[in-house]
């Protein structure tokens, strides 16, 4: 369960966080049931636990898709495992995280995830298994060899580029239609 609360900067109204992504915050005002979507730059956080603050500080980790049967604590557990791995192998703090591949599977009593990411320009693979609806995780981290890392990055780059090109074509069509439809009175 996540107990984060946010308020718009300069305002007192508190919203309960329903869901987080690496780009947006989905929240609800319990007084009037008003649901809102915020960008991180718009809000100030109120934390109930230290792990929540750590999660927001390194919110790139939220790009990992959370299985329905897992809590946001899964992201924190992954983040702590990454921190330990990085500290042990290159004696650095986390400066940047980029999720390259995020594969997953579920079974009756839990889930599996296979994640490739770049942390401080170092490729790592994260294998995680977890129990459904419990904060119990088994996380294994290993370094990616340069060839595997470059293949993953190249594949993801091409996929994202194609997606952007497709959306750009769609945007141009919609723009053309809007400019050429006669005004409706």
Brief summary of the model shown:
The chain has helices at residues 50-57, 73-90, 146-180, and strands at residues 5-8, 15-20, 24-29, 34-39, 43-46, 97-107, 110-119, 122-131, 137-143. By secondary structure, it is an alpha+beta fold. The chain has a domain at 1-48: SH3 type barrels, CATH 2.30.30.
> What is the spatial order of strands in the main beta sheet?
4-3-2-1-5
CATH architecture of one domain: Roll
> For the CA atoms, what is the radius of gyration?
20 Å
Number of helical segments?
3
Largest sheet: 5 strands, antiparallel
- Mean pLDDT over all positions: 88
Instruction: From the 3D structure, determine the CATH topology of one domain.
Output: SH3 type barrels
Order of helices and strands: EEEEEHHEEEEH
**Helix- and strand-based class?**
alpha+beta
Helix content: 25-40%
> How would the global form be characterised?
globular
